[in-house]
UniProtKB/TrEMBL annotation, chains B, C:
<keyword id="KW-1015">Disulfide bond</keyword>
<comment type="similarity">
    <text>Belongs to the class-I pyridine nucleotide-disulfide oxidoreductase family.</text>
</comment>
<dbReference type="Pfam" id="PF02852">
    <property type="entry name" value="Pyr_redox_dim"/>
</dbReference>
<keyword id="KW-0274">FAD</keyword>
<dbReference type="InterPro" id="IPR016156">
    <property type="entry name" value="FAD/NAD-linked_Rdtase_dimer_sf"/>
</dbReference>
<dbReference type="InterPro" id="IPR023753">
    <property type="entry name" value="FAD/NAD-binding_dom"/>
</dbReference>
<keyword id="KW-0520">NAD</keyword>
<dbReference type="Pfam" id="PF07992">
    <property type="entry name" value="Pyr_redox_2"/>
</dbReference>
<dbReference type="InterPro" id="IPR006258">
    <property type="entry name" value="Lipoamide_DH"/>
</dbReference>
<dbReference type="InterPro" id="IPR001100">
    <property type="entry name" value="Pyr_nuc-diS_OxRdtase"/>
</dbReference>
<keyword id="KW-0285">Flavoprotein</keyword>
<dbReference type="GO" id="GO:0050660">
    <property type="term" value="F:flavin adenine dinucleotide binding"/>
</dbReference>
<protein>
    <recommendedName>
        <fullName>Dihydrolipoyl dehydrogenase</fullName>
        <ecNumber>1.8.1.4</ecNumber>
    </recommendedName>
</protein>
<dbReference type="InterPro" id="IPR036188">
    <property type="entry name" value="FAD/NAD-bd_sf"/>
</dbReference>
<dbReference type="GO" id="GO:0004148">
    <property type="term" value="F:dihydrolipoyl dehydrogenase (NADH) activity"/>
</dbReference>
<dbReference type="GO" id="GO:0006103">
    <property type="term" value="P:2-oxoglutarate metabolic process"/>
</dbReference>
<dbReference type="InterPro" id="IPR004099">
    <property type="entry name" value="Pyr_nucl-diS_OxRdtase_dimer"/>
</dbReference>
Length: 102, 475, 475
């Protein structure tokens, strides 16, 4: 699916996701990444470990948890991780259509 | 460009060629838009001509002289002499190269450049008055405009910059002799950068500040380090005092008169008085009302998260659009303005704008402090690494300060950082990326950092927040 | 600790207190494991005592003297004199504070410290010989061991370090006079850091290098900048020549004899000869065979991605375990070893280990070069920002070099970076975080970077790779 093939068996995932994968006994290279370019998040690793590998995919960047904890810590998704940019792309096209040049 | 009878047209008109305006213009041109940039004075704006760049050049020059003159402890004996005229000449050369570069980059990207002062005639037209006698003016119509007219120093009553001995920051950056005694009104970042510079150049510097400490927005432990070091350099601080007037001293020089809230008066003998109490937006003569735009009570133009003013096709960026009034914020807003105009999904959704103060030592901050994180409803966890435990810091001879990182305890997300110490302005870049990427403490700690570097302190601070620092004791 | 009749026991035994060993020991203790650290010489290992730290101290001292003496262009006139004895004294003070700190940190974390030389008796026992006459020895049993015995300089035939005029890097870092003429055998990073240092201290430096350029693993354009600057400082390079022998010169001093592959001979008049041709692992006397461990043909101990040797409960970290033979790699491996022993899910899965060379200008690199990315099957895209277009660089007076970023074209993932220029060792930290996080070019470009900083060059390089840099022309 969305995950591009990365050469050299390289999986793009932050250290925290890689370590979580080891902790859960998941091969991080087998996880479908939902981040930009197929980057693997901690949520993707968890979803994979729960045998629910599709969940992370199905979501896509828009449906993930907030990119950072919301000001109310209690309803914070603990694994949300998106870059400024993925968020920027995701935000867009929303209610507020950008102006177009003539 | 569509050329009419009297009126020239452009798709995007940018007013002001500071770091907000020239960046907006270049990006708009890169987006394939026909773009015109109007500047009344000098390319690069306040930042390149009388702000960021000249101040940093003098900070380098004065810093090197001071450092070389105080390095006996490491076996380097020197008795440096500063030729202030030469230092200013070097600074001017740097400025010229940069402003020339901005002009070249604009041209190379296909931006049309017009020299003159723009004022709005209507919602889609400006008049540009060319400088100098009989230079005339032209009318320009636009589809989109970006107002990037910047800011100027605030004057206080009784202290006209016109007076030879009353300096604005611009004057302080252009003086070819060092006054024996310099009074500085205002202990904000501009006042403090210049206090440090002039103290190192040998002036007796007295700072007068209305508040009870320097560098108002910063945390106490950050301020303290910079204040104490400045005091070591000979800077005298007078807090809780406002400058009321100046007078001529009987024995030459001037007297700077101050007053506390309780009307207690003091006077300080000085040779120059630098007033650095803040900056105000430049909108006079711009006639924004003709375009249907209002300014707030302080003169700033309000914008939304796509940098648009109340009039949708007119954007405002940089200092004229209000806080944080920093060059890199202006540039970032300029890029967003251009991309929004080009129909791209850009917005001011940056998580954090870093800021630096180039005092001795430097300050670099980004994102939230511990208190701000608490206010925002997080349960913050904080880690620190003092530079006096950093091997690299010791080998540079500069061990003051610390690196601090603030994160959300539950998730580990890095929320911000405060660094005060050597190269803090550079070190904060990594923390900014961490904040922007949604990195966790673990991510920062698990990233291998080169030894020996100051940047290791960021990693150690992250480890300290997790209770497992190696080079500091964990709390 | 379980105390038996003759044998003392420990859960984790760490051999060698360099950046690999002491970090492993502290982390193991933090994990709640009973940990013993054996060191035969000085806490901090090669790095703190005769490597990273002393070299960087002398680089600072010599750099300041040189910079202050060459700053007329910015109006600073000085004629610095270096008191080499005093500089060494300062350096020693820095080393003492750091090594004392390491000892304190070990104790504070509950690490048991033993002074002595360890050698394996069996798979779970070592004998520790205490230094000095009649100090005796003790036997120690362990459940897990971490071998962190480091490396020492390679000697070449005919150049015994015992000779007064033949220097190892350790000697070069401890000399209290500057030789008039210094011959350096080897143009690797240690040779080049010391060549720069001694050239700035006033020595006539001649580098003899077997290969046809300095700094073998680096890219040509990186090497060139450092080589040309060193040449400006007066360093003479002789490539394609190997040192064959030395002799006494009739008029005092020595002659360094070299030979090319084609047996062409040359001689260089020198006063000291520094041999810096690489480092070899220290395993002699350690009797690893008694524990069932073999070393490879170069003497290194092979390990897996959890730092385990062929004998699962014995780990090896740092220089003794082979490349990259850097202090921060050693520390990172030490942490992994301790955590693996503690049963945590740690592994050497770092994407990239950054490296720095503290020449003038500095080099900082991390991850893949363009060529390496291609070899790995990526379709790399590259962006650059030259420091001579950086406002901050201009204001520091140091504009040589560039920041380069390498990314995967399709996904935008940052794969690596090469920075040569001012503060490159610090700037690479942000790129390392980007690589480790799986950040894209857009992530780096969209992160607001403080103005004016050198770190902006990283952002500009990312924009350049995307064809939309503001401050350089895009290709
Ligand atoms: C001493 C000093 C040091 C500073 N140091 C730093 C620092 O280290 N880092 C940092 O981030 N910021 C620093 N700043 C602040 C920084 O200079 C400003 O934030 C930045 O210049 C704002 O950019 P701008 O494009 O909004 O406006 P400006 O740079 O002010 O540029 C506005 C331009 O618009 C032109 N203009 C105005 N009106 C018109 C008109 N009607 N028609 C045509 N042209 C017009 C002006 O001539 C000017 O060139 C410093 C400021 C000072 C004074
Ligand atoms: C001049 C120079 C400059 C350098 N600059 C840098 C730099 O800037 N950055 C960088 O990353 N790296 C640098 N290095 C390399 C760095 O010093 C090494 O990579 C690092 O020290 C390796 O750490 P280690 O813990 O593996 O071993 P070491 O630091 O070598 O420590 C090993 C320790 O083990 C002890 N030991 C050995 N055998 C026994 C035994 N049998 N029993 C008890 N104790 C024993 C030794 O006494 C020593 O203290 C430099 C090296 C040199 C020589």
């Amino acid at each position: 699916d969305a995950e591009p093939d990365t050469p050299a068996g390289r999986t793009f995932a932050p250290p925290s996701a890689r370590r979580l994968a080891r902790e859960l006994g998941v091969d991080v290279a087998a996880v479908d990444g939902s981040g930009p370019g197929g980057r693997v998040t901690e949520a993707d690793v968890r979803a994979h470990a729960e045998g629910d590998a599709g969940a992370a995919d199905a979501g896509g960047p828009d449906d993930g948890p907030e990119p950072r904890p919301a000001p109310t810590p209690t309803d914070t998704g603990s694994d949300g991780r998106k870059s400024a940019v993925s968020k920027r792309g995701a935000d867009d096209g929303s209610a507020d259509a950008p102006a177009t040049p003539a | 460009m569509v050329v009419g009878d009297v009126t020239t047209g452009t798709e995007v008109l940018v007013i002001g060629a500071g770091p907000g305006g020239y960046v907006a213009a270049i990006r708009a041109a890169q987006e394939g838009l026909d773009t015109t940039l109007v500047e009344k004075d000098a390319y690069g704006g306040a930042c390149l001509n009388r702000g960021c760049i000249p101040s940093k050049a003098l900070i380098t020059g004065s810093g090197l002289a001071h450092e070389a003159g105080n390095a006996e402890f490491m076996g380097v004996h020197a008795d440096p002499a500063v030729d202030m005229g030469k230092m200013i000449e070097w600074k001017d050369g740097v400025v010229d190269r940069l402003t020339g570069g901005v002009e070249k980059l604009c041209k190379a990207n296909g931006v049309n450049l017009i020299e003159g002062t723009a004022s709005f005639v209507g919602e889609d037209t400006v008049r540009v008055a060319h400088g100098g006698d009989g230079q005339g003016s032209e009318t320009l119509s636009f589809e989109h405009a970006v107002v990037a007219t910047g800011s100027r120093p605030i004057q206080i009553p009784g202290f006209e910059f016109a007076e030879d001995h009353v300096w604005s920051s611009a004057d302080a950056l252009d003086a070819d002799t060092v006054p024996d005694r310099l009074g500085i009104v205002g202990g904000g970042y501009i006042g403090m950068e210049l206090a440090t510079t002039y103290a190192k150049l040998g002036a007796d510097v007295t700072v007068v500040e209305m508040l009870d400490d320097i560098l108002d927005p910063y945390e106490d432990d950050v301020k303290r380090i910079v204040r104490e070091r400045a005091a070591e350099l000979g800077v005298e601080f007078n807090f809780g005092e406002g400058a009321s007037e100046w007078s001529e001293a009987p024995d030459g020089g001037y007297l700077l008169h101050t007053e506390t809230e309780d009307s207690e008066e003091s006077t300080y003998g000085v040779d120059k008085i630098l007033v650095a109490v803040g900056r105000q937006p430049v909108t006079d003569g711009l006639d924004v009302a003709n375009a249907g735009i209002e300014t707030d009570d302080r003169g700033f133009i309000e914008t939304d998260d796509r940098t648009r003013t109340a009039v949708e096709h007119i954007h405002a960026v940089g200092d004229v659009a209000g806080d944080p009034m920093l060059a890199h914020a202006a540039s970032n807003e300029g890029i967003v303005a251009a991309e929004v105009i080009a129909g791209e999904p850009a917005a001011l959704d940056r998580q954090a704008v870093p800021a630096a103060v180039f005092t001795d030592p430097e300050i670099g901050t980004v994102g939230m402090t511990e208190a701000e994180a608490e206010d925002a409803g997080f349960d913050p966890v904080v880690g620190e690494m003092p530079f006096n435990a950093s091997g690299r810091a010791m080998t540079t001879g500069h061990t003051e300060g610390f690196a601090r990182i603030v994160a959300d305890e539950e998730t580990g997300f890095v929320l911000g950082g405060q660094i005060v110490g050597p190269e803090a302005s550079e070190l904060i870049a990594e923390v900014a990326l961490a904040v922007e990427m949604g990195a966790t403490l673990e991510d920062v700690a698990a990233t291998v950092h080169t030894h020996p570097t100051l940047a290791e302190a960021v990693m150690e601070a992250a480890e300290n927040a997790r209770g497992q620092a190696i080079h500091t004791l964990n709390r």
